[in-house]
Request: fold
Amino acid sequence: MLCVTHSSTDPYFNLAAEEYVLKNFTDDCFMLWRNDNTIVVGKHQNTLAEVNLDYIKEKKISVVRRLSGGGAVFHDLGNLNFTFIMNGHEGHLVDFRKYTLPVIEVLKNLSVDAEFQGRNDLTINGKKFSGNAEHVYKKRVLHHGTLLFSSLMEDLHLALRVNPLKYKSKAVKSIRSRVTNIKDHLQQDMDVIQFRDMILDHIMDIYPDSKAYTFSDEDIRNINNLREEKYLTWEWNFGYSPKYNFEKSFITNGGFIQVHLNVSGGVIQSAKIYGDFFNKLDISVVEEILNGSRHDREELLDKFESIRFSDYFHNITAEEFTDGMF
Reply:
């Protein structure tokens, strides 16, 4: 087994690295890695319905979609991520207990009573510290999980706090759980890097064929190409979202507004606007601008520059209106 070590905390590079290793290596692999402040959404989720856009914009929190299913999770440098990429036989690839067992063994050695619970979680005293997900590619499985070690819980909760009434779709919704940090249950002082090294040592003990591997210059070039072409793009992180209907009512300086959107692939297919605002020109022009536009703040603001917004919404700015659509 190759134990891949790298120091990148760039979420787009790290998610690209997983896909690159999954699809281009033939060896079994294990990786430990960390992301700077990031929300990682599951492959089948509506990104806008999982993130608190105002909060992540204020805190400069990244958003990236991963290959595997499941719910959205918050990463910071107090969170450690582990990845197994293993060869296997069709029908016997998915095994959440197998790939989480080494983590439980390390914690048991630290006198922490961790256990596997539900479909894919690890808990301590009933509180979740690890969520896990898997993705199968041909005869290889990618299993990855989070390990909350010393994460900032306020950021975790606020970044993922979204009004569930805005979005109606068949997208997979995240289930929020009571969470805890591993560090709070340790009897000895330890930081996340020491904990990382302890897990790595344990993996190399239980897999006798393990050897350290560092990405080559060619590996890094290929991963960066995938980062740029896929993981950094709006099309992957937002546009890949399943179809959804968006409904929101909000109060502005110019009156009450209600917006209804039908969205597919992150692009608005139809839009209707209602309210008690005053206007000089027919708002169907604004609805036509919305049709075919990305459900994206920056793009909408750019398109609204083509009209004199006050003609359609008296005493309402384009910025105020656009903010209400998220």
The chain has two domains: 2-239, 244-323. The chain has a mean pLDDT of 92. The first helix runs from residue 11 to 24.
